[in-house]
Amino acid sequence: MMIDPKTLAARFPGDFVFGVATAAFQIEGATNIDGRKPSIWDAFSNMPGRVFGRHNGDVACDHYNRLEQDLDLIQSLGVEAYRFSIAWPRIIPEGTGPVNEKGLDFYDRLVDGLKARGIKAFATLYHWDLPLMLAGNGGWTARSTAYAFQRYAQTAIARLGDRLDAVATFNEPWCSVWLSHLYGIHAPGERNMDAALHALHVTNLAHGLGVAAIRSERPHLPVGLVLNAHQTYAGSDSPADQTAAARAFDFHNGVFFGPVFKGEYPASFLAALGHRLPQIEPGDMETISQPLDWWGLNYYTPMRVSHDPAEGAEFPATRPAPPVADVETDIGWEVHAPALGDLIRELNAAYALPDCYITENGACYNMGIENGTVDDQPRLDYIAEHLGITADLIGEGYPMRGYFAWSLMDNFEWAEGYRMRFGIVHVDYDTQVRTVKKSGHWYGELAGQFPKGNHRPA
Ligand code: FCB
After folding, report:
1. Which of 172, 190, 334, 413 is catalytic?
2. What is the pLDDT of residues 273-299, one digit of tens each?
3. Residue 393 vs residues 353, 386, 437: alpha-carbon distances, Å
4. How far apart are the CA of 41 and the centre of ligand 1, in A?
5. 28 flagged as catalytic
6. Residue 68 catalytic?
7. Distance between CA 434 and CA 432 in Å, rounded?
8. Which atom of ligand 1 has the smallest separation from the CA of 172?
């Protein structure tokens, strides 16, 4: 049964923000234009064996050249906000050194175009496209990269901050730290705990330095951080699996939430790996834990873990446990919407958290165009179900302020290349024709109800 968008809309306060999200490297293309220099993802995607089919970001959705048309598309969906990321290699192409005015001009046009269409601008400063030149100095494992990020943040906000509605420092540090330096799946593709631990602290520090830089330019611009927190379910009721799940929570969530919202790394993590962290300088934890105006949750699927009994298994010493739901998306991720509710409850119990936006949620389904339309009913159902949980959370009093569908359109899905599609709009990569999918029409009907009259009492 199709969930009626008007009925669902009635469950949200009138000032709830409905938006769509993208990221620079996944859609822009034009990697060689107007002074941009390569990022670590340009290099990574051109190495054999890293990205499916050796797909790369050279053209992507050609968004850089189709900006006005894509802004019209966003407007036609009727959403109130657009979450995008700014490409550091367009702004300071070598990471440090000269500022590239033409790169800033592009985002100037983007935010002006949003304002002209009455759409709120939610910018992310780092969505994984580190300038390649910085990799030569150690990339995220080098403390100097945190200071380079601080300068980039200041530069971007000085130029664009007056027209932004919100800014996030980082998108999913879990990915740019663990997935990139420990599990080897994302650029730079390292599999090394020591490198990952350095990237962890340097990224946390860069976040804090970035917050300070943003506020020095624009004290009233709402600043946040986007985290892909994991709901860590134990694979069984056994005490060994239960404690394994607690360790997983600390490793996958606590090492980011702890420093940012409590000023400390989790005790279990410090006991196991603290001696391998880089030097924590005086003042670092204060810098990292400056209060935030909001935080963003990117949620797709739960994590299920069991205790790993292997001798010498490294913290958190877990292994994957099987899914409980037999529904999975085309990328193989279990669909289990209640985990979104459990996660928000658990995180709010563990930390004093500010307002929350769901900055990404969505599903991978690869169906294409038939007779001019894309019937992606499972994506529509996925979004509707997760919005239902979000409405429940609002009813329970959690400060959920908005929801951004991932993604506005099909795009470069990192190590999966173009074969995995998350868009509510279909992209034909041969012609660059965009076709709004069934889920996109439905989402537009829902979003079009907002803002509406029944605002939250102040
Ligand atoms: C998130 C990323 C986003 C997209 C989705 C599917 O981890 O932030 O760029 O790839 O997953």
Report:
1. 172
2. 999 999 999 999 999 999 999 999 999
3. 14, 11, 28
4. 14
5. no
6. no
7. 6
8. 8
**pLDDT for the residue 227:** 99
CA of 194 to the centre of ligand 1 (A): 25
What's the pTM value of the predicted model, to 2 decimals? Answer: 0.98
Question: Does residue 458 have a pLDDT over 60?
Answer: no
- pLDDT one-digit tens code per residue, 242-280: 999 999 999 999 999 999 999 999 999 999 999 999 999
Number of the ligand 1 atom closest to the C-alpha atom of 420: 6
Ligand 1 environment, Cβ below 6 A: 23, 26, 171-172, 175, 228, 298, 360, 406, 413-414, 422
Q: What is the pLDDT of residues 330-364, one digit of tens each?
A: 999 999 999 999 999 999 999 999 999 999 999 99
Distance 84 CA to ligand 1 centre (A): 12
Which tokens hold the place of 213? 């830089």
* Of the options 4.10.320.10, 3.40.50.2300, 3.20.20.80, 1.10.10.1100, the CATH number for the domain spanning 5-447: 3.20.20.80
Write down the domain spans for the chain: 5-447
Distance 453 CA to ligand 1 centre (A): 33
- CA nearest ligand 1 atom 9, residue: 23
Whose CA is closest to atom 10 on ligand 1? 413
